[in-house]
Design goal:
161 residues, alpha/beta, Molybdenum Cofactor Biosythetic Enzyme, Chain A, six-stranded mixed β-sheet, 7 helices, 6 strands, globular
Length: 161
Amino acid sequence: MARAYVLTVSDRSARGERADETGPRVAARLRELGHEPETGLVPDDAARIAEAVRGAAAGYALVVVAGGTGLGPRDVSPQAVAPLLDYIVPGLGETMRAEGRRSTAMAALSRSLGGVLGRSLVLVVPGSPRGAVESLDAIAALLPHALDMLAGGDHPQEGRP
């Protein structure tokens, strides 16, 4: 399947004050889904996030940014990533939030998103291990088709007249 990159965004983990649990959990789930993930870690800094996402999109079909989707002053992942994207795919963020609301009403406050940068699909998901994996699972069935289309594939013929 696709090469993937998981970028954890966390001040505390970047400073070594807390182990990164989210990145490894997302990477493990991606492996279960057939992807080949690598991981990285940056603090909640818009310039560092943007630099890491640009670099990852140059070499990976799927980039997952975990963390920084809340409402806190250091939660800057969506505003760091969105300007980089060629376009946003609104249904991805909507689907992730809808699924998250099944577990917690607070998921409605998440600013998760998905979009395209070059030929890479970029996802921004919550920083909690559970929220990140739930968000990924919410759209897991869509990933093969989305990644195939970005790689130059065509729409499936079934159901067409």
